[in-house]
Amino acid sequence: EAQVTQNPRYLITVTGKKLTVTCSQNMNHEYMSWYRQDPGLGLRQIYYSMNVEVTDKGDVPEGYKVSRKEKRNFPLILESPSPNQTSLYFCASSFSGANSPLHFGNGTRLTVT
Amino acid sequence: EDQVTQSPEALRLQEGESSSLNCSYTVSGLRGLFWYRQDPGKGPEFLFTLYSAGEEKEKERLKATLTKKESFLHITAPKPEDSATYLCAVQAIMTTDSWGKFQFGAGTQVVVTP
Description:
By secondary structure, chain A is mainly beta. In chain A, 0% of the residues lie in helices and 50% in strands. The model of chain A has no long low-confidence stretch (mean pLDDT 94). In chain B, strands 2, 4, 5, 9, 10 and 11 form a 6-stranded mixed β-sheet that branches. A 5-stranded antiparallel β-sheet of chain B has the order 1-3-8-7-6, with no helix packed on it. Chain A binds chain B through residues 4, 31, 33, 35, 40-45, 48, 50, 56, 58-59, 90, 92, 97-99, 101-107, and chain B through 4, 31-32, 34, 36, 41-46, 49, 51, 87, 89, 91, 94, 99-107.
């Protein structure tokens, strides 16, 4: 089944403790992206990747890192999480990024205390 | 700066009561406008892509239309299973600082009661 898989689904951590949220897609998509969703603000793009080894900042990249070493994986790294990064995170992929619809994972709910 | 505004924020409908959701946008040049449906606890699910003013797309009880400044999602004779949050997103024509970016609206939460 074609899908975008994120792990974990739920994560509670403390301020400053490094964490990684994994994202994997099995559709051979070129483009992958990370979003955070907060009430009243909608989905905001954190980082995106047009292809392997090519990443770029979205609208809210501060406090996050990403890497794209393989086509199928696009992990989101929080080196020193803070409470304002408490949010619902979504990974998405698309065939090419241009004119291609996004396929989303089921989300990771992160709480930073 | 690209902006996407959706209205209303929430909509409560009786089963069979048709209505429309609005997505207004400002973008330097539109590459595509996308509609998604999001159910609680899940990621958004793709519905439609619209590329140019005058274009229309239909799927079951949903119909999306596009003008130069806004898009409408019409729900005809809705059923309870149409209850969801509907999101629109725009992608701008490639520029050096926006290539690959999608701008989402905050969504319209639709509740359809029997």
